[in-house]
Write a structure and sequence with these properties.
about 350 residues; alpha+beta; Arc Repressor Mutant, subunit A; Beta-Lactamase; Enolase-like, domain 1; 3 domains; three-stranded antiparallel beta sheet; 15 helices; 10 strands; about 50% helix; about 15% strand
C-alpha cells in the first residue's frame, strides 16, 4: 500500500477497500472487534487470515482501524467511519419498507403539522432503533398589518396581525425622544411595502431597504424597527424539540458502557439546548448532514452520532430539522437515505 495520504476509500486498492468495508459492516452489526479469520471467510476472494492481517495492519497505519485491546480484532476509527459514511452517501437508496412506513405515517389526515412531526419522530426512532428527533418550525405567518403603540418612553408595543387571523404582540426598545408620529409613519411604511410577507421575509426586506426606511421616517426609528424584526425572526423561541425513543439509547451497549456520557446526553436533550445551533448546522446546505463522534458539536457527547436533514415550507425556506441520534455504531447505509427521504417528504407536505 502506498504512503500517499488517502482522502477517501476510493484511494485504497480493491483488496484493501473490500476488507475495510466488510470489517466496518461486521462492526456495525455486532459492536465487537473483527478478527482476520472472520474476515477471510466473508471477503469475496481467497485470502488467508495471515494475508488479511497484513492488510489490516496497513489500514491501521493509515489511521482507519485500531485495536481496542490486545486481541487480534480491529475496529474502525472515527476517520475510518467518516470515509465509510462518505462512500455510502454516493449511492445510498431508501429501503422500500422504511419508505412505506414513513409514507403510511405521513399520509394520515391531521390538521396539525406539529402532530404529524411528532409521529414522525417516533417512526424514525422505531426504524433506526435509536432516538428520533424533530425541531418543529417557528410560527411564521404572513403579516397583514402592523401597528405600533407607545408604552413607555423607551418601549413600544408592536401588534402583528397575520393573514391567518392570528394576532401577536411584541415589544421593542425605542429612543426616548422618538415622536409617536414617527412610529405611526413606520407602520404605514411597513404596511404599504411589506404587507403579505412572512416575518422572515419582512426582516430580510427591511435589512435590504433600511436606507429607504431611514429616508421616509427617521434613522433611529428605522434602526429600532430593523433590530426588532431581526430579533423576532431569529429568536426561535417557539421552536420545539421533539425526541422519541430515548429508551433505545439505554438499550445500546456502546452508550450504556459509559453512564456519565449517557446521562449528559439525556440532560442536554431534556434541557433542549442548542436548537438554533442544530438548525444552523443543516440550513446552510441541502441534504443530510452526518456528525460522527467528536464531529458532533451538540449534546456534549463524543460517542454519539447525529444524522439530520432540513425540511422546508412552501417558500422553499428551511423551517425545521429532523433526524436520528444514537451511538457511532448506527446502520448508516440504511438511516442516511431514510432521513433524507423523510425530510423531502415533509417538505412536500408543508408545501
Amino acid at each position: 500500500m502506498n504512503d500517499i495520504p488517502i482522502t477517501s476509500l476510493a484511494d485504497l486498492d480493491e483488496r484493501a477497500r473490500q476488507i475495510f468495508e466488510h470489517l466496518v459492516d461486521l462492526y456495525l452489526a455486532s459492536g465487537e472487534p473483527v478478527g482476520s479469520r472472520t474476515l477471510s471467510r466473508r471477503i469475496p476472494f481467497d485470502l488467508s487470515p495471515a494475508s488479511v492481517r497484513n492488510v489490516m495492519a496497513d489500514l491501521e497505519e493509515l489511521g482507519l482501524l485500531y485495536a481496542p485491546h490486545t486481541s487480534a480484532g480491529r475496529m474502525p476509527t472515527q476517520q475510518g467511519l467518516r470515509f465509510f459514511v462518505d462512500a455510502i452517501m454516493e449511492h445510498a437508496a431508501v429501503d422500500p419498507e422504511d419508505k412505506a412506513a414513513i409514507d403510511a405515517e405521513l399520509s394520515q389526515a391531521d390538521a396539525s403539522a406539529e402532530a404529524m412531526l411528532e409521529r414522525l419522530s417516533s417512526v424514525l426512532s422505531g426504524l433506526a432503533h435509536a432516538a428520533g428527533l424533530v425541531v418543529t418550525p417557528s410560527h411564521n405567518p404572513r403579516i397583514r398589518q402592523i401597528e405600533f403603540v407607545r408604552l413607555e418612553p423607551e418601549k413600544a408595543l408592536v401588534i402583528l396581525v397575520g393573514a391567518d387571523g392570528t394576532v401577536e404582540n411584541r415589544i421593542i426598545r425605542v429612543p426616548p425622544d422618538l415622536p409617536t408620529a414617527t412610529l405611526q409613519r413606520a407602520a404605514h411604511f411597513l404596511n404599504d411595502r411589506l404587507s403579505g410577507l412572512s416575518m422572515r421575509e419582512m426582516g430580510r426586506r427591511v435589512a435590504r431597504e433600511l436606507d429607504a426606511l431611514k429616508r421616509e421616517i427617521d434613522a433611529l426609528a428605522a434602526e429600532a424597527v430593523a433590530a426588532g424584526l431581526a430579533t423576532w425572526t431569529g429568536s426561535g423561541e417557539d421552536k420545539r424539540l421533539i425526541v422519541r425513543g430515548r429508551g433505545n439509547l439505554i438499550a445500546d451497549a456502546e452508550l450504556l458502557s459509559d453512564l456519565e456520557r449517557l446521562q449528559k446526553l439525556f440532560t442536554d436533550l431534556e434541557e433542549k439546548r442548542d436548537l438554533l445551533q442544530l438548525l444552523s448546522l443543516v440550513e446552510e446546505g441541502e441534504g443530510v448532514r452526518i456528525f460522527i463522534g467528536r464531529e458532533n458539536p451538540l449534546f456534549s457527547l463524543s460517542g454519539a452520532s447525529l444524522i439530520v436533514a432540513p425540511y422546508g415550507d412552501a417558500a422553499h425556506e428551511v423551517v425545521g430539522v429532523l433526524g436520528v441520534i444514537g451511538p457511532t455504531r448506527l446502520p448508516y447505509a440504511r438511516i442516511i437515505p431514510m432521513v433524507d427521504y423523510a425530510a423531502r417528504k415533509v417538505s412536500r407536505l408543508l408545501s
